[in-house]
Specification:
alpha+beta; 5 strands; 189 residues; Nuclear Transport Factor 2, Chain: A; five-stranded antiparallel beta sheet; single chain
Length: 189
């Protein structure tokens, strides 16, 4: 009797596993549904033209549109990134920060920055790490812009245990070369 019951349970278990496997295979390899207005094998088309109302979104206020037209996209982020790398320095690699930024500077600015940066490190370790906190667009024209970046500077020396933390502003003047904004002048305040 126990053996008949065991066989029955085993048969039911095998049938349940077969049904579950068939369902999984059908879900994975079964017929794919296509949208009603799409032919099988064609790529769906996405509507990208139109204004915000086309997509059910409210229109942007005129003040915001005017501000976006006057403010070059990414200039604030560029200024903050530049300030962090420009101000970060280590005696282990004295001019690396300037050389890394060459593509973001005008040739004259690059030459000036290299001349002002020490060529060889001091006898003991010294390093500066800069974190940009904010950037304020102060002036913008078609081919020039001025941005003030507020930073936090951590100075580490010798022991490296207690960094000296202070705050400094970096005034950046940009000029436009084609479609690219390049730093033409940088002054710590």
């Amino acid at each position: 009797m126990f053996e008949d019951r065991r066989r029955l349970v085993l048969i039911i278990l095998v049938i349940a596993i077969a049904i579950a496997l068939a369902i999984v295979l059908w879900l994975v390899f079964g017929p794919k549904k296509t949208p009603e207005n799409q032919q099988p094998g064609s790529t769906p088309q996405v509507e990208t033209s139109g204004n915000a109302a086309t997509f059910g979104l409210p229109a942007a206020p005129p003040e915001r549109l005017e501000q976006e037209n006057q403010y070059p996209i990414g200039l604030k982020q560029l200024a903050m990134s530049f300030a962090e790398r420009y101000g970060s320095y280590s005696t282990d690699e004295p001019q690396k920060n300037i050389k890394d930024l060459e593509s973001l500077m005008t040739p004259a600015m690059y030459k000036t920055a290299l001349a002002q940066s020490p060529v060889i490190g001091a006898s003991g370790f010294s390093g500066y790490s800069v974190k940009a906190l904010s950037a304020d667009l102060q002036n913008i024209k078609a081919d020039s812009a001025a941005v003030l970046v507020k930073t936090q500077v951590s100075q580490t020396s010798g022991d490296g245990i207690t960094p000296n933390v202070y705050y400094r502003n970096l005034q950046l003047n940009f000029i436009k070369f084609g479609t690219e904004w390049l730093v033409n002048q940088a002054r710590w305040q």
